[in-house]
Recover the amino acids of this structure.
């Protein structure tokens, strides 16, 4: 059985670490920017089928509340900078992914759709623009909250692929970690937005 554990710096010093949720299914989570909630991707039953959905848990503890509608599996999510909601990637079908925004009451708005080769990980920048990475690790899209593409960057051809990426706090650059195909070594690169 897995657990979601919550603590702050003072808790570490005092030894007062508390379990917020005990479950067999939390897959990953992120604390909201205001520190009041934890968003987790959790496997739940939806119409008899196991689906990876986003649930919110109060940081102080309590029952998780499923935030996303009965969708195909959620792949990734990131909080809005102000904590008012999040942006997530979910599978629409075997061939299609969607990027959507949801507020903390559960209102959803789709931002864009793409094939599996176009939509994978997601990061929200400080100005609320969204960076989307493709699962093949060959590039990034920068989209606004209407879903309009503002920029498209391709990873250099010599790169073997991207394993993770993150937007800078000021929203001016992306750091990516991947591997260098010819030398099979780790690659860290910065892309200016």
């Amino acid at each position: 059985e897995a657990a979601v554990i919550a603590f702050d710096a003072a808790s570490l010093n005092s030894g007062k670490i508390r379990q917020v949720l005990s479950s067999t299914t939390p897959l990953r989570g992120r604390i909201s920017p205001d520190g009041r909630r934890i968003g987790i991707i959790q496997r739940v039953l939806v119409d008899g089928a196991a689906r990876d959905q986003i649930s919110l848990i109060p940081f102080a503890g309590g029952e998780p509340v499923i935030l996303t509608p009965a969708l195909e599996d959620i792949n990734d999510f990131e909080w809005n900078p102000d904590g008012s909601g999040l942006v997530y990637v979910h599978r629409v079908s075997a061939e299609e992914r969607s990027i959507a925004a949801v507020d903390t009451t559960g209102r959803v708005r789709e931002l864009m759709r793409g094939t599996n080769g176009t939509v994978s990980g997601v990061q929200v920048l400080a100005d609320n623009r969204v960076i989307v990475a493709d699962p093949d690790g060959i590039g990034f899209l920068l989209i606004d909250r209407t879903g309009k593409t503002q920029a498209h960057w391709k990873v250099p051809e010599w790169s073997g692929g991207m394993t993770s990426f993150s937007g800078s706090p000021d929203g001016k650059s992306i750091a990516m970690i991947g591997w260098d195909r010819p030398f099979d070594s780790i690659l860290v690169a910065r892309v200016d937005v």
In short: The two ends are 41 Å apart (CA to CA). The longest strand covers residues 37-46.
